[in-house]
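Quarterly update from the structural biology core.
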Amino acid sequence: MSGSKTKEILVDVARKLFAEFGKNNITMHDIATVSKKGRRTLYTYFKSKNDIYFAVIENELTILLKKLQTVANKNIPPDEKLSEYIFVRQNAIKESVKRNGSLRSDFFKDIYEVQRARRRIDIIEQEIIKNILDSGVEQGVFDIEDTKMGSMLILYSLKGIETPYTRERISEYMDERRPQIIKALFEGIRKK
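Predicted structure, tokenized:
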């Protein structure tokens, strides 16, 4: 078995254990035992439980990024692309948190650590959004002077509603009102 396959197995086992029992209730020994790998093998890839925890988060963020890249690569008008991007993103994050069960509590409790792990993805995400905005400006769909600032505002707005969206306080409401949300985003709230 290749090294990368072994590492994938260890990360997946850790994810499942963290999801079922919570990060604080799992040891490196537990991960080694359930994965049927020796502790020496586990320590070859990860120095600590925190290292494997962040590998789990990184893996989830990679899944998110693949979904976002799929939307970004679609040959559709920029306004449709941005709309789809917003809802694919929020639903992918919600799915990730649900898939990871009680890892959810660690996810929100260790928010600063998670933010540090997400920084790389945030930079990529901002660039994807900026490219969508740039394309929209070029095609005359969007009227925005500073697409970098626009992409930052959109990203941070989306990040701001992640927790309530993930905890299902507003996800159904937003999904039902998708056209109104997109209209407010694209046209603003000021009366014309």
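Residues 49-187 form a domain with the Tetracycline Repressor; domain 2 fold (CATH 1.10.357.10).
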